[in-house]
Amino acid sequence: MRISFAGGGTDVAPYPEREGGAVLSAAIRRYAYASARIREDDQFVIHSLDLGLVAQGPIAELSELDQQLHLLRGPISRLAGDDRGVELRVQSQAPPGSGLGASSTIVVAVVGALLAAYGRSAGPHRVAEMAVSIEREDLGLTGGTQDHYAAVFGGFNFLEFNDDEVTVNALRLPVSTVATLEHNLLLCDLGSSRESATIIDDQRERFERDSESTVRALSRQKELAVEMKQVLLSGDLDGFGGMLGESWAVKQELSPLVATDAAVRAYDAAISAGALGGKITGAGGGGFMLFYAPFGKRFEVAQELRELGHEVLDIALDDDGLQSWSHD
Fold first, then answer.
1. In this protein, which residues make up the domain named GHMP kinase C-terminal (predicted)?
2. Of 175, 219, 235, 291, which residue is least crowded by CB atoms under 10 Å?
C-alpha cells in the first residue's frame, strides 16, 4: 500500500487528460496478499480471510458475486478461462476506505496471483495498466490511478500522468533520508473509513464545471508534488514535513467533503504538540492521516493523538513492489 504526499486528485480523469497530473508517493510495508489455484472444473471459490466470507459458483455467474467481494470479480473475469475455475484466497492489512490505496492494492495482488497461477507473464507497467482498467472500466469504480502503480512498483516515486501514459520516476534516496522519514512520519487512524468515490465524484464535477477553487487547488497540488520532490532530494526533511501542511490545506479546497471534524481536531492537536505538517492520506472523509514530527517532538505528537482516542502507527517504507511466485 502507499502514503501520498502531494498531487492527489491530479491522477483522476479528466484532469490528467487535459492538464497532466503528478503525484509524489511512497509504498509502505502494509500489504494485500492473494493466492490462486487453478481448478479442474468451472467453479470459482473465493475466501476473503478478512471478512470471513466464502463464495462459490460457476465462473459464468461471477456477476452475482456478493457486493462485499465485488473487487475480486474483475480480475477473475479478465484473466480466468471459461472452462477452468480458480480458488482464490485474499487477505489485506488495511480495509477499503483507509486512504492507503487498499482497494487498488487488492486488485493488483489478485492480478499478480492469477497471472502466476495461469503461467502468464507481464511487465510492471502492463500489470498496473491491467489493474487500472479492471477497476475503472470493468468494474466501473470511480478513482485515480496512482495506487495501482505504487503497489506494482514499490519504492518512493514521482508519478506523472498524461492522456494515455504513466511515467514512474523512482527516487533513489540515501539510507539516512529513508531512516529519518521512517522515524519522523506517523500514521494516525481517524477511526472511520470513507467512501472515496463520493468525494472524487464531487471533485470531478467541480473541475468539469470549472469551479475556480477546485481548478486552482488541482494545479497547486501538481506544483506541490514537484516542489516537495525537489525539497526531499535536497535533504531538507523538516522543510518537506512542513510542506505536508500546505498539501493538506490545498486538498481541502478540492471538495468540502475532504475534511472531517476528527481530521481537523487531529491536525490541530498534532501541530500544537510539535508536528511540522500533516495531511489525509487518501481522498479524505476519514481513514488515516499522515504527520511529520521532528525527532525531538515525535513522542509528544503521538501521545497527543492517542489522548484523542486515535491509534498511532509507525511507518516502514518498501522498495520491492508486487511479488508473485508459483509453488506446489
1. 231-309
2. 175
